[in-house]
Amino acid sequence: MFKLKYHKKIRKDIKNFPASLKDIIRNESLKEIQKNPYKYKNLKGKCRKFKSYTFTYKGVSYRIIYKIIEKEKIISVYIIYKREEVYEKLIHRGLSNILGSNSIE
């Protein structure tokens, strides 16, 4: 099974999420990604090296953006946020640096 690693700003992403949403992310969403990280779709354009897992909580769509590092069996989780704001967050995290990186910053 793949090991999960998190971008240093993930805590900030989820800081204000309700406890029930954090539980869903921890106990359902991330476990699903770990089972089969290749199952979920790739982003497009410059972000195509990233995969996206989408889920809905109380009518709001969220995405978990991650990258698979196959040789190390690691899933690098970069963003957990509302779908509408994910690309903006990805750019603010230094898209060009992240795209070339194989490890969490």
Could you explain how this protein is built, in words?
With about 100 residues, this protein is α+β, with helices and mostly antiparallel strands. It has one domain (about 5-100): YaeB-like fold (2-Layer Sandwich). The protein contains four helices and five strands, in the order βααββββαα. It has a five-stranded mixed beta sheet with strand order 1-5-4-3-2. Mean pLDDT is about 85; it is low at about 100-105.
Structural class: alpha+beta
* CATH domain class name: Alpha Beta
Oligomeric form of this entry?
A: single chain
Number of domains: 1
Average pLDDT taken over every residue: 86
The helix count comes to 4
Distance between the termini: 22 Å
Biggest sheet: strands, sense, closure? 5 strands, mixed
Reading the helices and strands in chain order gives EHHEEEEHH
Principal-axes geometry comes out as globular
Which residues sit in consecutive blocks of at least 5 with pLDDT less than 50? Answer: 100-105
The CATH superfamily is RelE-like
- Strand runs, count: 5
Spatial sequence of strands, sheet with the most strands: 1-5-4-3-2
What CATH architecture do you see?
2-Layer Sandwich
Computed over alpha carbons, the radius of gyration is 13 Å
CATH topology: YaeB-like fold
Percent of residues in helices comes to 25-40%
Percent of residues in beta strands: 25-35%
